[in-house]
Amino acid sequence: MLKTFGSFVLFLRGMVTRTERFSVLWNRTIDEAILIGVDSIVIVSIVSAFIGAVTCVQIAYNLTNPLIPQSTIGYMVREMTILELAPTITSIVLAGKVGSSIAGGLGTMRITEQVSALEVMGINSTSYLVLPRILAALLMFPLLVILAMLLSILGGYLAGTLTGVMTAQDYIEGIRTDFIPYNIVFALIKAVVFAFLVSGISAFKGYYTTGGALEVGAASTGAVTNSIIAILIADFALAALLL
Amino acid sequence: MIEVSNIEKSFDGTPVLKGISCVFETGKCNMLLGGSGTGKSVLLQCIVGLMKPDIGSITFDGTVYTNSKIDIRQEIRRKIGMLFQGSALFDSMTVAQNVEFPLQMLTPEMTPEERRDRVEFCLKRVGLENAGNKMPAEISGGMKKRVGIARAIAPQCTYLFCDEPNSGLDPATSTKIDNLIYEITHEYDITTVIVTHDMNSVIEIGEHIIFLHQGKKLWDGTKEEILNAKVPELREFIFSSSLVRAAKRVDDETEGGMAAFAEESESGGGI
Questions:
Q1: Strand, helix or coil for residue B125
Q2: CA–CA separation, B176 vs B237, rounded Å?
Q3: Which end of chain B is flanked by fewer CB atoms within 10 Å, N or C?
Q4: Backbone angles phi, psi at A197, to 5 degrees
Q5: Is residue A99 part of a domain?
Q6: Residues from chain A contacting residue B147 (CB–CB below 8 Å)
Q7: For residue A93, what are the domain limits?
Q8: Which GO-annotated molecular functions does the record name (chain B) (predicted)?
């Protein structure tokens, strides 16, 4: 465990010690941002809209006390979405989609000697292959989390109003009640931390793949499971430290 | 010229290379010959810097490569071209982009037009001028090897390393690849090192042959000398092929027929 952590730290150090030219790094980061960010918009949109909708309906189902105003549903959807569901669920979804893609891609490059080809050319393969992926994740995860927040709240609105559990006016009143801007900052800090964990762990698992196709599959699976565990641990740690 | 001096390498306490010393001469096709598991590829990886030897040194044209500063190692690496066993083409790039890649990374001073011209030249040199827009998945194994060669020579390398360039290819394609490597070596006066266990290649293009057995260098010499070598392990290795046995028989019967055979293959006649 300690040895793996040490290897991970050395892996990250190697990535930033001899970086490629800025123009190369920039172009690679933009390419990866498209793969990580733009290509994930659909899945993040679907998941977050439905989570918002389900959250709204289930809170309404549980709030049967007539003394509690209906606007509380909107308030709770907003709080749950911003503090937990948008950053954490989005990151877990991205761990599955992006993490497996990073680990699988790098693992395949490793076993087909493409990584060795880069090294022989005198190119720092971690800097060329891994750094842009991590930078792209750090850039795109917060944007996707912001999108998830908006769509979750919108999903809650549509579910609440279309199913008739509450009025649009109550919902809007709820999502505007006692708003704390720091919660947004907290969610974005979580998104950045989760982005680093997902991209870093997945790249590490993929980069050090040895063997054949079977091991690439195992590296992808390991990347996803380890990323999700890391997200949950970091989620608790950040909540305890920053709230 | 590449000088390898007393290289040793072990994995988990098991020695793979046991004090190998040899010289790879400039402008020649140097061949590392040996059976599977004799340490040829490990030696090649130590030379190109993909593995670090436990003991020993490697010198490229007088510059020590092993244990030198990263800047010196980078400088030497940029003069190295390598053809991998599986070609190692970048899947996400077209054939032309694969060839252009080292130019983009290593020679930023080149303009896009200069790079395009160089890519066209290299692809034409390996006979793939019409395959530039194809993806690696769309071309055959032999074409992939040729793209690998084009990518290796694109930045005008000084040293060319080929790890089993004929693996998985039919005899006719193998001969074409061998001849291409031979021509390029002489055309650009490159120090070429070829890892192989294919005797056809040795007879075809081998100019300086080093035989490895169980991690040790047992013999080195020319292809003309190899058939009369007295090392039992080498004789066992060479004459395990019925084709070479037959060639040797002809050689013995005709007194020098093998030399003519080698000359014929050198002139492109093939085996």
A1: helix
A2: 24
A3: N
A4: -65, -50
A5: yes
A6: none
A7: 34-242
A8: ATP binding
% of residues, chain B, pLDDT over 90: 48
CA–CA distances in Å: residue A46 to residues A147, A150, A161, B182: 11, 12, 19, 58
Chain B residues within an 8 Å CB radius of A114: 88-91
Which ipTM score applies to this complex? Answer: 0.84
Q: Which of A20, A108, A116 sits opposite B84 (nearest CB)?
A: A116
**Candidates A106, A120, A128, A133, partner chain B, best to mutate (most B CBs within 10 A):** A120
Which residues are CB-neighbours of B47 under 8 A, at least 6 positions away?
B2, B4, B58, B161, B193
Q: Residues near B121 by Cβ (< 8 Å), separated by ≥ 6?
A: none
Query: If you search the block for the tokens 């650009």, which residue do you land on?
Result: B188
Q: What burial letters (b/e) apply to A33-72, b meaning 16+ CB within 10 Å?
A: bebbbeebeeebbebbbebbbebbbebbeebeeeeeebbb
Q: How many domains does chain A have?
A: 1
Domain positions in chain B are: 91-157
Angstrom distance (rounded) from CA B185 to CA B190: 5
User: Residue B130 above 70 pLDDT?
Assistant: yes
Inter-chain contacts counted by CB atoms under 8 A, chains A and B: 50
Read off the tokens for A93. Answer: 């979804």
List the 165-224 stretch of B: residues with Cβ below 8 A of A.
none
For A:189-218, CB contacts with B below 8 A are none
- Name which of B50, B110, B163 to mutate to probe chain A: the one with the most chain A Cβ atoms within 10 A of its Cβ: B50
Q: Of B63-72, B126-135, B249-258, where does mean pLDDT reach its minimum?
A: B249-258
For B:97-156, CB contacts with A below 8 A are 102, 104-106, 108
Three-state DSSP at B97 gives helix
- Residue A121 with chain B: CB contacts under 8 Å: 77-78, 80, 102, 105-106
Q: Does B258 score more than 70 pLDDT?
A: no
CB-neighbour burial class of residue A148 (10 A; exposed 0-12, middle 13-18, buried 19+)? buried
* Integer Cα distance of A9 and A76 in angstroms: 40
Who among B78, B91, B104 is closest to A122 (CB)?
B78
